[in-house]
Amino acid sequence: MKNTWDLSFLYKSFEDEAFQADLARLPEAIAEEKALLDSDLPVQEKLEKLMDADEALSLLMDRLFSFAGLTLATDAGNGTAQQYEDKLSVIANDASLVGSA
Fold this sequence. Notes:
This protein is an all-alpha fold.
C-alpha cells in the first residue's frame, strides 16, 4: 500500500515551477495588501480592494500550506516539506501582522 496521496492537483513537487512561483508570489501579495492598507484610497474602494487582495492571499496561502502539510501528514520525516512549512509559517506571520492592522 502506498503511504502518500496524489497532490498533483496542488503541485507536482516542491521543485515544481508552479510551487516556486506561488512561494515567490506570497511575500509580494502580502506587500500589496499592506500597500492597500496604507493607501489614501476612498474608504469604500479601499475596502473592496482589500477584500479582493485578502481572498487572493488566503487562497494562495491555503494552497501552499496544504501541499506542505499534506505531504508531512504521510511522511513526517520529509525534511523538505518541513523546511517549506517552516518558511511558510514565517511568511504567514507577516500576513497576520498586516491582517491585524
